[in-house]
C-alpha cells in the first residue's frame, strides 16, 4: 500500500477510507494499484463492511445467521463467500429492511424495462457527499477536468443523471449542463441549442439518444462538427461495436463506455483503447459466477457479474447478482490502468433464444449495423423461436428488397437460423425512457410499407 490503511478502535471503516484517500498526492490513484495492493484494499473494505452490517442491521444479521465463520480480517473471504447472493427481487420486496442506516437523504428508482415492482435504492447524505466522491479515477476521467459537460441522461427518479452530474462537478470541476433526456423540459431541440450556446467539450448520454440528437440536429440544420467534442461517454444501454462506430462517425468523436446501474452505481470506465471496461475497484468488489450453479468462475470465464458495494453507508449490497453476462480480463492494458477489465456479453434475460441457439442482442446488432444499407433504428421480433428483423433504409433512395436480401444474407452467413426481414420507411423511435429493441409478441407489417 502507498500508506498503511488502518482504522482506530471503533472508527467507522468508511471514515478511515476517506482519511486515507485524502492523503493521496496528485499522482496517486487506485487505478495504479498492483493486484496485491488491490487485494489488501478489498480485504480492508470487505471485513469492515461485513462487521458494519452485522452490528447495525437486523436484516443482514438474520441473513448471516447460519454462517460458520466469524467476521474478522483474517478470514473475511471465507465468511464472505458463504454469504447468500442478493437479487433484484430481494431488493424489490425488502428495500426498507435492507437500509443499514435509515437516515436516507435521497431515493432513486430503476428506469429498467424488465417489468415487475419498482427497484428503490436509498443513499445517506454522507454517501452522496463524503463516501462516494472519496474514490477518484484520475486517469480514466481526468481528461475531462474543467470541461463543459452536457449531461443528456434522465434526472427524474433515475440515479444516472444525478450521479454523473455531482461526480463530474465535485471531483472534476466541470461546468455541468443538465440537458436531460426526454423529460418535460428537455426537448431534444432545446438540448442541442443549450449545448451549442455553451460550447460543450463532453457529452454524456445513451447510444440511442445520441442518434436522436443527431437526427434532430440534421432536421434543424445544426452541424454537429461545430460542437468540437473531445469526449462522448455512452452509458445506460448496451451497444455493439459497429453501432458505436456509427455514433463516432456522426459526432466526429471517439466514444468511451461508462458502465453502471442503479443498484451498483459506477461499475466501470472504458479507456481510450476500447478493449474492455476497467472496473471501479475502489467502489466495488466484483465476482463472476455460473448463473445456474452459483459457482465462482476464474478470470476469462463467461458468467454472471456479481457486485458488492464497498463505500455505501445507507444501503450496501452484498453479492448482488446484476443479471449482466461477461468475463474479467486481468491482462495488462497499455493505457497503464491496472484494474481488471470487464468484457460484457449482454444480460441474461435479454438473450435471444432461437431454434438453433441463444444469442446476445448486441451480437446480432453488430451484424446488422455493419450493413450500410440499414438505418440506425431496428427491432427484433421473436415468435416461436423465429426471428423477424424490422429495419429502415439508411436513405430513402435504396431499394427495400435489396436491403432485405442483404440483411438475410449477412445473418445466414453468421447464424444457422432462418430469419425474416421487414423494411419500413421508418422504425418507431422512443424519445424518452429506455429503448426497447426486443419484442416477443406477434408483429404484423408488410415489407416496403
Give a description of the structure.
By secondary structure, this protein is of the alpha/beta class. It has a domain at 352-439: ANL, C-terminal domain (GMP Synthetase, Chain A, domain 3). Helix content is 29%, strand content 23%. The chain is built from 13 helices and 19 strands. It has an 11-stranded mixed β-sheet, sandwiched between helices. Strands 18-17-16-19 form a 4-stranded mixed β-sheet, covered by helices on one side. β14 (352-354) and β15 form a beta hairpin. α9 crosses α10 (207-219), α10 (207-219) packs parallel to α11 (241-251) and α11 (241-251) packs across α12. It is globular and about 75 Å long. It comes from Metabacillus malikii. This is Phenylacetate-CoA ligase. Its EC number is 6.2.1.30. InterPro entries: ANL_N_sf. One of its GO terms (molecular function) is phenylacetate-CoA ligase activity.
Amino acid at each position: 500500500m502507498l500508506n498503511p490503511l488502518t482504522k482506530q478502535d471503533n472508527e467507522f471503516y468508511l471514515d478511515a477510507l476517506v482519511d486515507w484517500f485524502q492523503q493521496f498526492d496528485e499522482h496517486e490513484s487506485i487505478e495504479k494499484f498492483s493486484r496485491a495492493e488491490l487485494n489488501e484494499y478489498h480485504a480492508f473494505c470487505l471485513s469492515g463492511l461485513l462487521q458494519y452490517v452485522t452490528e447495525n442491521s437486523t436484516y443482514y444479521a438474520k441473513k448471516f445467521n447460519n454462517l460458520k465463520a466469524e467476521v474478522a480480517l483474517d478470514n473475511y473471504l471465507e465468511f464472505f463467500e458463504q454469504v447468500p447472493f442478493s437479487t433484484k427481487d430481494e431488493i424489490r420486496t425488502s428495500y426498507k429492511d435492507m437500509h443499514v442506516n435509515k437516515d436516507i437523504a435521497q431515493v432513486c428508482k430503476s428506469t429498467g424495462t424488465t417489468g415487475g415492482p419498482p427497484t428503490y435504492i436509498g443513499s445517506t447524505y454522507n454517501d452522496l457527499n463524503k463516501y462516494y466522491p472519496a474514490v477518484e479515477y484520475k486517469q480514466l476521467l481526468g481528461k475531462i477536468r474543467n470541461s463543459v459537460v452536457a449531461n443528456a441522461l434522465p434526472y427524474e427518479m433515475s440515479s444516472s443523471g444525478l450521479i454523473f452530474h455531482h461526480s463530474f462537478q465535485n471531483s472534476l470541476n466541470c461546468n455541468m449542463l443538465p440537458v436531460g433526456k426526454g423529460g418535460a423540459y428537455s426537448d431534444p431541440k432545446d438540448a442541442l441549442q443549450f449545448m451549442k450556446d455553451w460550447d460543450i467539450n463532453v457529452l454524456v448520454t445513451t447510444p440511442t439518444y445520441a442518434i436522436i440528437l443527431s437526427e434532430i440536429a440534421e432536421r434543424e440544420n445544426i452541424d454537429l462538427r461545430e460542437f468540437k467534442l473531445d469526449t462522448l461517454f455512452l452509458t445506460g444501454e448496451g451497444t455493439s461495436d459497429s453501432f458505436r462506430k456509427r455514433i463516432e462517425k456522426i459526432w466526429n468523436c471517439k466514444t468511451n463506455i461508462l458502465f453502471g446501474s442503479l443498484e451498483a452505481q459506477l461499475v466501470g470506465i472504458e479507456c481510450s483503447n476500447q478493449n474492455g471496461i476497467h472496473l471501479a475497484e475502489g467502489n466495488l468488489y466484483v465476482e463472476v459466477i455460473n448463473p445456474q450453479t452459483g459457482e465462482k468462475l476464474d478470470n476469462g470465464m463467461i458468467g454472471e457479474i456479481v457486485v458488492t458495494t464497498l463505500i455505501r453507508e445507507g444501503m450496501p449490497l452484498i453479492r448482488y447478482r446484476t443479471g449482466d453476462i461477461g468475463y474479467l480480463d486481468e491482462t495488462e492494458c497499455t493505457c497503464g490502468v491496472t484494474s481488471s477489465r470487464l468484457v460484457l456479453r449482454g444480460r441474461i434475460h435479454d438473450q435471444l433464444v432461437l431454434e438453433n441457439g441463444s444469442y446476445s442482442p448486441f451480437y446480432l446488432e453488430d451484424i446488422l449495423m455493419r450493413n450500410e444499407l440499414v438505418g440506425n433504428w431496428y427491432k427484433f421480433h421473436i415468435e416461436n423461436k423465429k426471428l423477424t428483423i424490422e429495419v429502415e433504409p439508411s436513405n430513402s433512395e435504396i431499394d427495400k428488397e435489396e436491403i432485405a436480401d442483404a440483411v438475410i444474407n449477412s445473418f445466414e452467413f453468421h447464424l444457422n437460423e432462418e430469419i425474416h426481414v421487414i423494411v419500413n420507411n421508418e422504425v418507431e423511435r422512443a424519445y424518452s425512457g429506455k429503448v426497447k429493441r426486443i419484442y416477443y409478441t406477434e408483429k404484423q407489417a408488410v415489407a416496403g410499407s
